[in-house]
């Protein structure tokens, strides 16, 4: 905004205030949500990590083996924790403001691009692009879950870098380029998925250069400045490798593995998610599970036909928007969405920028009466509102359950330091996180003088709104160990099929590989641990009827 005239600045501030108001209308219900799952991990890191330049020399946990490289994300969390502690309202307030600001930046970006295309009424269509990004239903996880902050903050600086770069493209003033590069560095140091920005800049520079060449402009600006961004990216990758030992790996997979068919299947899943806002996810992943090759062939066929149409009709603007979308999806191609809930939609937060621009551009160019377009947009906006409220209701329920679980610990009347082994804690509620991880950290915050010592087992219950307050597992013991079985035979258990973890060998029986669920947990502790459990020196800690429970 420093490059703009005063009148335009006031107009932009007014538009940002509109987006902020709408953000509170759509997402305001999350302000009272309690922390869940990984939130407590970030809070603990914020509390225990000392301020140091070593943030930039280690992974986010302070080590040098694996993990993610997010030094500035830790800085952001530490600042908020120092200012607000455990006041979850303030964290959610920041999420809503970030969502509104990112939508505003999408508006600015759309205005730049649509104006370059000389789109009629480009200001109106740009406003609709920002508005649609603001309320697109795949944004809910990123806004409602504090641990999804890296996507919100990274996208903020990613868009700042990109929009400022386009100002540089017009004005050719070096301080503007330096500012754009600075924003890019900040985005990288918050979340690694910002690595797609140099390629996005390159494809747009190629587009602008080709347009200038086609229009026989004498002062054609060659696409060379993206090389500065590639150089920054190279230094970042070196620093990341020194800090984590990972070059192309990530927190869930230490070594780079190229799986072309699987990646294309994931890409098809992401596109399906953006288009259907999650409604076709279950159907898509059923088809992918049984017919992966056919799904990939069909997806590539549709994509090839669309690209062929764009090439033959010289629709280079659409082509560039679509390629930008694919570039932004590149860093998450190895990751999968949850097959039957909306979990994982945070991976689509940044790609939604280019998807929304592409969608609005198509709507602007399609030959329909203006009244029909307005009616179509009204239907889309209303549908988005309904879907978002449904998802937020689930997040509200998951946060209520998280708080109820933490409060229920007091009813167990345990002494400080009591050893517990957690089994069957709720992983998620229809996609909204609950306590897959970090119950220990949560209890340390809220029971500092009386918290237990929990050894977690990576086996969980998967909840829905129908079973949230019911008994899910019945326990029995035999000579080797224990069984925890689904009371009604339903597949309510999720986790790995079998593993030795924290001195316990466990198996999940009747495992459904399609959705990673089972209905029986087999637990076989080592002899010494089994004796401690039998003698009630160590207890099984589980989840029952919405509360923590000790297994007798």
TrEMBL record:
Keywords: Membrane, Repeat, TPR repeat, Transmembrane, Transmembrane helix. The chain crosses the membrane at residues 12-36, 91-110, 122-139, 151-167, 174-190, 196-213, 225-242, 289-310, 316-335, 347-366, 372-388. It comes from the Bacteria. Coiled coil: none annotated. InterPro entries: O-mannosyl-transferase_TMTC (IPR052346). This is Glycosyltransferase RgtA/B/C/D-like domain-containing protein.
